[in-house]
Design brief:
two-stranded antiparallel sheet, about 60% helix, Four Helix Bundle (Hemerythrin (Met), subunit A), mainly alpha, about 170 residues, 7 helices
Length: about 170
């Protein structure tokens, strides 16, 4: 396979595939396991997944020119499907936005307000790639938590995605 000219499209395609596999893993588990407190930075699968979904949506809002200075809480998204709905909608927003990310826009600065309302600036291409990197980080946490609960998570490795793409032709 030749490397795509626009690696953002493929990077976000991989990301959606990986998130679908996480959802498949979580949907196979009980609600009790989903909400069970395990300690750590994000104390439960639910807390981690709600964070992942909310942050993904916040970045889509920011890329659309709107402030996003808060994320949904576990009280607002108590069930897996509540958070899944937010994540899948955010992925659709990102998919619609990606074609608007011209080389000029990507090379320029991106200015946004963080969750504290503080103004931040970084190269736009860095922030766009950060969205996927951030989700990869939290998918790893989810995988570890799933294992601690005695389950087997679906692999979300990029190379597994690549193998699947190659097998499809």
């Amino acid at each position: 396979m030749i490397s795509p000219a626009d690696d953002l499209i493929s990077l976000y395609a991989y990301n959606s595939w990986a998130n679908a596999r996480v959802l498949e893993t979580l949907r196979a588990m009980s609600e009790a396991d989903y909400v069970k407190e395990q300690g750590g930075g994000w104390p439960s699968l639910r807390a981690t997944f709600v964070h992942l979904a909310g942050a993904t949506d916040a970045w889509a809002e920011r890329f659309s020119g709107r402030d996003a200075t808060r994320r949904a809480t576990i009280e607002e998204l108590p069930g897996l499907e509540d958070a899944a709905r937010i994540l899948l909608a955010a992925e659709e927003k990102h998919a619609r936005l990606l074609p608007t990310f011209t080389p000029e826009r990507l090379a320029g600065p991106f200015i946004w307000k963080n969750l504290k309302g503080e103004r931040k600036t970084a190269p736009f291409w860095v922030v766009v790639k950060h969205v996927v990197n951030h989700q990869t980080y939290h998918r790893g946490q989810i995988s570890a938590m799933v294992r601690r609960l005695g389950h087997t998570p679906k692999s979300t490795d990029m190379v597994v995605w690549g193998i699947e793409i190659s097998a499809r032709g």
